[in-house]
Design brief:
Largest sheet: none
Number of strands: 0
Radius of gyration: 13 Å
Strand content: under 5%
Structural class: mainly alpha
Helix content: 55-70%
């Protein structure tokens, strides 16, 4: 039950913030990012990054990327 609650909170954070997946996994109480990824994929049938891409939020690493130039 607690694992499900943590995963649901992680899903919410992934969909509503640009925090890194690793930071979110630690925030919801996972000490091991690999275990978080496996648990998330097993529970939701997609990885945290796949969910983030689906909701179209940039990852935190994209915040520092240079803007694309127009030709």
């Amino acid at each position: 039950y607690f694992l499900q609650q943590r995963l649901n909170y992680a899903k919410y954070l992934i969909m509503t913030t640009t925090d890194s997946i690793a930071n979110i996994s630690y925030t919801v109480g996972f000490n091991n990012v690999t275990f978080f990824y496996r648990s998330f994929k097993k529970h939701f049938n997609l990885t945290p990054m796949e969910l983030r891409k689906k909701v179209n939020l940039p990852s935190s690493s994209a915040k520092n990327a240079a803007p694309a130039r127009k030709s």
